[in-house]
Amino acid sequence: LAAREARPSGTVVQVGNVRIGGPEPVIIAGPCTVESREQMLRAAEAVRAAGAVMLRGGAFKPRTSPYSFQGLGEEGLRLLAEAGAATGMPVVSEVMEPDQVELVAEYADVLQIGSRNMANFPLLKRVARVNRPVLLKRGFAATIEEWLLSAEYILAGGNDRVILCERGIRSFDPSTRFTLDLNAVPLIRQLSHLPIIVDPSHGTGRRDLVASMALAGIAAGAHGLIIEAVPDPDDALCDGPQSITPDTLASIAARARAIHSAL
Ligand code: PEP
Ligand code: MN
Description:
Radius of gyration: 17 Å
GO biological process, one term: aromatic amino acid family biosynthetic process
Keywords: Transferase
CATH topology: TIM Barrel
Organism: Sphaerobacter thermophilus (strain ATCC 49802 / DSM 20745 / KCCM 41009 / NCIMB 13125 / S 6022)
Largest sheet: 8 strands, parallel, barrel
Helix content: 25-40%
Shape: globular
Protein name: Phospho-2-dehydro-3-deoxyheptonate aldolase
Order of helices and strands: EEEHEHEHEHEHEHEHHEH
Bound molecules: phosphoenolpyruvate, manganese (II) ion
Strand content: 5-15%
CATH architecture: Alpha-Beta Barrel
GO molecular function, one term: 3-deoxy-7-phosphoheptulonate synthase activity
CATH class: Alpha Beta
């Protein structure tokens, strides 16, 4: 079902008035993690002004350490939805457990499956049964085939609104947090009809590399970008080192449009 032959013209996933997979590249931005009402509203206004059309923010966070901030849970979802409504943007947030799917779907317009859960098959089966598009991140040690088979779980379970997201794979080099695998973009476009976006924030882990890799993703054929951006990246409770300012986001948005129209 995920194969290109199943829908040669390509799939457009519509979320509110945002079309992912259509002719315009889509920018999704916001904080890694929802921290407070004030932080979320400020970030939403700033990224909206910088060219974002969809808002991101994690409420249930898959932190490597159990001692790191785990997110605000349902309160975080409420604040994210409020900020989205205030700025006219649909919102995307991660769901980590099958039993949380209905709760996250009450607040989020798009359900994110994180890299660490790409092969959580009970979770994939559960999001297949809910009436929300799914942003499926690539596992950081998953092959393209494994990733597409995870998408297949969601499609086969009855949900045909899947957006793929390349977010970097693990390599040997500690210079960057992950290695953004841009091979994946043209490959996915050959192999599948599903829209593909790129996450240069987790793909690099470094603010100074985000703009270049975002633009490279668009040049490679991505349908959009998901970027961690907030007014005060150095104060972020999670992923500050890879978060960019709204000014940098605005510059990415302008150049992404120019590159895309030259393709
Ligand atoms: C995130 O988007 O904040 C996140 C945790 O991403 P990933 O699952 O790609 O690490
Ligand atoms: Mn993050």
